[in-house]
Structures are given as C-alpha cells and as structure tokens.
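During the second year of the project, the team shifted from modelling isolated chains to modelling whole assemblies. The rationale, set out in the original proposal, was that interfaces cannot be judged from single-chain predictions alone. As a representative example for this report, we include one of the complexes processed in the last quarter. Its constituent sequences, exactly as entered into the pipeline, are reproduced here:
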Amino acid sequence: MVKLKSNDDKEFEVEEAAVIQSEMIKNMIEDGCATSVIPLPNIDSKTLIKVIEYLNKHINMGKAAETGEEDDLKEFDEQFVNMGWEELFDVIMAANYLNIHELMELCCQSAADRLKNKSVRAVREMLKITNDLTEEEEQEIINDAPWAFEGPEIDDTVN
Amino acid sequence: MKCRNVYTRNAVIRGLALAKSGEEALRWFLIMERENVKPDEVTLLAVLCACAYSGMVEQGREIFSSLMSGKYGFPPGAEHYACMVDLLARCGHLEDALSMIKEMPGEPTKSVWGALLAGCRLHGNRELSEFAAWKLIALAPRNSAYYVVLANLYGEMGRWNDAEKIRTLMKERGLLKDLGSSSVELEDQKDLLELLSGWGCSTLNHRSRFDPEHRENSVGSTTKTLLGALPKLCWEHYPRMGPYPAQIQISQESQKMADEEAKIEARPIHNWAELTQLCLINILSRLSIEDLWRNARFVCKHWFQACKDPKLNSVIDLETQFRESDNESRSKPEFEQKIDSMIRSVVGWSDGSLTHVRVKHCSDRSIALIAERSPNLQVLSIPSCPHVTDKAMSEIAFGCPLLSELDISFCYQISHRSLALIGQHCPSLRILRRNLMTRLFPSEQESFLRPHHGDYEAAAIGKFMPQLVQLELRFSPMTSKGLALISEGCVNLEHLDLFGCTNVTSRDIANASSSLKKLKTLKKPNLSLESNTERYGHWQLYDDRFQTDFFRI
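Output from the structure prediction step:
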C-alpha cells in the first residue's frame, strides 16, 4: 500500500498496483522515495478521490481485455468524465502532475469533444476565459492567416 | 520450448534482472554455462544488470573480472562498464566505481557518468555528484536535465551563487526546464508550501492572484524563512531567490505569516486560461483544423500562442473543406491568395516539422516555400493547382527527400521533368496520383492529351520510381508503350488505376498485369464498357463515343 496526502492534509491509502499507473509515483517508488507518505501539494482531496477511483478501476487494464470487461471499463470512463468544466480542469492538472497517461488521454479527449464546433464566444463562456486579445490583434490574426473558407454555422450554445 | 539458444536465455536473464530476482538470474547464467551455450555481450549485460538491481556486488565483480580476463571471448564494452559502475555506485562503492571509470579504455560515455551520478545522489555524495554532473553537461550540453540536477545539488549544498550561475548558463544556451512543481516540506510534514518554478516558460499558476513580481518576492521570503527554521529539507527544484543566509532566526509571528501565505498559495483555482501549454496543446490537437482556425485561436492570447505551436502545425489538411460544392469562387485569384497565406503561416509555425500538406488551389510560391522550409515533408497533395510549375516542383525534389506520397492531379503546368526529378531524389515515394480530366478545359490541357506526352510521363515513372506501390493515372493519354515502361519499371505496384486511359488496349493491360506480380487492384479504363472492349478490340475506336460528363471526377 502507498499513502498519498492531498494539499488539504487528507491521507489516502492506495494499492501499489493501482498507483504505479502514475509515472511520477512509479519513479518515486523505484527510487525508494516513497517509504512514508507521498505529499501531493497540487491536488486537493476532492480531485484526488476522483483520480484514485480511476486508478482502482483501471488497475488491471491488460486483464480486462482478456475477461471481456472492456465494455464495462468503457462505460466507467464515459461516466467518469461526465463532470463539470472546473472539475475536469482539476483532474487534467492532477493527471498531468502525476503523469498518468491514460487518464490524461481520456480527459483531454473529453474536453476536445465538448469544444468541437463551438463558437469563440461559447468557448470563452463555458471555460470562463476573459478575452485579452485587442480588436487590432484579432484583425491582425485574420489578415496574416485567414481561414480561406466560408464555413457552415458554428454552434453558439453553451453546454 | 524446443529451441533453447543464447537469445532465449538472454531474455530470461534480462527478465529476471528487471524483476529484481538477481539470484535467479545468476542461476540461469550458470545453467547456461553448464549447458555450453556461449554467452554473448547481451547476456553479460543482462547478468550484470541483474547483479546491479539486486545489490549483488561480489558476484558482479567476479563475473566482470572473468569478462576482463577474456573468459567469454570478447572484451567488456562501454555498456558493460556502465553496468558495472551502476552496480558499484548503487551499492555505495563510489570510490571503486570512480576507479572503474578511470580504468576503462576509451572515453566514458553518458551512461557511465549517468550511472555514477545516480549512485552518488542515492548515497548523498555531493562532491562526486557535482563531478559527474559536469561531465554529463560536457557530453550532452543540450540536455537540460543535467543542469537541473546540478543546480539542485548546489542548492542542497547551500551554494546558491553557483546554482544561480548554472541557471544563467542554461539561459545563455537557450535551454528551458520543463515546468516543475516544487514543494518545501516541513519537518513535521504538516505545512506544505507549494512553489512553482519554471525557468523561462512557465505559466505561473497563480498569476491572476498576484502580480508576478510581488508573488515571487513573497514566496521567496517565505521559503527563506521556512528554510531557516527547519533543518530537514526536501526539494526537487528550488525557487528563485538570492543568496541564502546561513542562519535566520524567526519569530512565532513570521512563522504564522509564512503559514498564511502557504495557505493562500495552495488554494486551487480553476482557470482554463491558465492551463499549462502542454495540456492545452494536448486538447487542441484533438480538434479539427477548422475548429482551430475559426474558433480556438481567437479565444485568448494564451490559446493563440498554443495554436502556433509546431506540434499543432505539422499537418495542414484542407481536403474535407474542399468537399463542399463551391467551386466557382475557388478558381478566383483571391481564393488562391488566402490558401497561400494559410500555407505561409503553417510553414512558419511548424518550424520545419511540417510532414503533411493536403491543399488545392495554391500558388507556385507556396510550393517553393514548403520546399525550402520543410525537410520532413512526407505527403504533398496539391491537386487542381493550375499555377504550380516545374520550377517549384524541382525545389520539392531537392528539399523534401522524405516524400512518400504525391498528388499532382490536374496540375497542367507540371511535366514529366518534375516526375523524373522527384523520382530521382525522393527514394521513399510510394504513392503517386497524376490524374487528368477529359476534355473539360481543352485549352489548358490540350498538350497533355497528346499520346506522346502521356508516354513521356509514363517513361519517367517507370524509370525513376521503381518503389511505387500505388499509381493513379486516370485519363492519361499514354499508349501501350507507356504502360509497358511502367509495368517493367514499377515492379512493386499493388494498386494501379487506369480509368479513362483510352489509348491502351485490353491486351496491353493484360500484358502489364501479368508482369506486375504484386498487383492487387487494377482499375481498367472503363469497367462498365468491359464487355464491349472485346468486340471492338481497341479502345481508340471507343474514344469518340465517350461522354465527357460521364468521366467527370
């Protein structure tokens, strides 16, 4: 068992087989740096619980393929990324920090799927990003590198 | 297993080494010797690794000395030395490891110094670590990791000035450290202060909360305070700060302040504009080119910067955009200019990494620019570019040696000369599309419809493109002569499309397909008229009856 500690001082025990899906922790264990609690100063307990849930489910990826549990795993993944933008952001940052390749793929694909065909305005609103491009700068982008086509309507709805 | 040889043994020993079953690995090694299977370099490497991973110093030494004495019939290579250094250094025999390096013939390699460095770090020998790290920097001056190790080392030794010097050196050499997150851990592990240090390119996580100047100062002073207060420290990357004073007395109050600051720093914020560039690029790389160009790059400055990253610009594929039917405006010069601007931007942003270009209606200038700046180009698909000439194509031949797929259909200013040049200079070319149209634009392609012209092109293909696997020559006016040259020259062809090639007879095609042994699919001049060909026996008789619209692609 490996002990992880979130930035709000909560400790979690995770099976080593699950936790080594994180390249970072795997390296720490290999280097013998994981003898006591591993502090994760970038991750709060809410996010860490999500990540551990994922790690536990994906503990034996290879086995799942053999026993035909792939569909089950796929369904879990679908349910897993069914979260708000803020939560998704936290999980992506955690996956990036812990270097969990599969989780990163899953979350980034989910983010991309939601951004597909969305207008600039919709993207900004969904992700609460303030536009810091001036009108001149925007015009410059259009002049230097115009999109050559007349496209169909873009989805302006926010969800 | 039926066949037990040195390779299967090597695999077993290596596997056991990785599983840290050193003794088991050694047992197999001895079995191997007993069975008179001669160990090779790989076996020795594996067994030494096994000793290293399992801390079996004496056994390792013994094996190495018999290797030195020539027992196995070959002298130890640099890898064996590296393995031995790793073994000794891991187990704390650092002096022995160093003398091993001094003894080895030839210059020590990166892996040798790397092994020493890892061992020294493990056993806390800072002086020797420093020595090894400098050696590594000398051997691999472009690898930022060694600089970081060295800087951290100086940090641990309290030599902040030297650490700063390393960092300056990195900057001078234009190296960037990957964004790293560092933690300063207090002795009782209750208080954690999170610091972000990225040298040069970092997106500070809390940029919006503090202005960078203020933030850095406050974190710096907090860290100093904490460092001064507690003897046991653990960190990976140290924050930007000045020379570290030897002793700082801190009061209860400043400790409290530090705690407060630490709490503020550690509070999470969910700001998508602050997502690290690497993560953002990961997400954006999953969007279509249309989404990137019409939406993502206008979201904010950070996103615009990300959209210009070479990783997102190694491919420009506009094929899907051309599927919609709006052909009229596309033949206008303004449209060509827009496509040119897009290509110019992507070529610039790709920074030499451009591999795929699939466009239409671009100009000669764009092709020349691609040729000049994209040495890694693999796919060039530019059908319907009426203004691209042999001149630009010859530059492609010289500038893009990795080209494997080329589509120059309906480009009527490109001739057999380009085909010859590209065949000569791009040995990887596997797919060629050179389709023409029937008499849709007689003025433009008049000369192309002359049989001898088709035969020139066929001759160039047959002579200079022997590696072709797929060839499309729809409506080529070549004759039986041209087809014969292709079937003699391009013996690797698997797919051949001769739709609309009205100057070749079915007998020509039969001859060609019999000499092309690897052929899997063959599209004949017109499948629906197949039965009639036998009656007339000659395609040219049929030429007059073709409805041009029928062949429109």
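Chain B touches chain A through 48 residues (CB under 8 Å). The beta strands of chain B are 180-185, 192-197, 315-317, 356-358, 379-381, 405-407, 431-433, 470-472, 495-497, 521-523.
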